[in-house]
Amino acid sequence: MDVPKAYVESAFSQLLGCRLQRLDTGVAEVALALEPHLRNRGQKLHGGAIFSLVDITMGLACSASHGFDQQSVTIECKINYMRAVSEGEVLCTARVLHAGRRTLVVDADVLQDDKLVAKAQGTFAVL
Length: 127
Hints:
By secondary structure, this protein is α+β, with helices and mostly antiparallel strands. It is 24% helix and 44% strand. It has a six-stranded antiparallel beta sheet.
């Protein structure tokens, strides 16, 4: 899907270092490298950075579903963390499971190589 850069990046996603990898109808993939400013006190990738990656990726999947001419916002999101990340990068893949007129339900997996780091599900409102 060919979308102008201004529609797929925000100041916050740039601050984190998110990099769009793939965008198809209802699907988005975004990568995030573990940089020093994203580490928690235990020197692992901060859970808040992972959650932000998930929310950014889910939002892009929603936009790729209903079109970038409409907006959607997060109503709720639940995440389970499976393992810590000490180095390297992670890839978040988000898929729209249900696209209604007013809400979308989105599923996301965060992987490092073939290992599941986090699993999330969110609901978005179409504005």
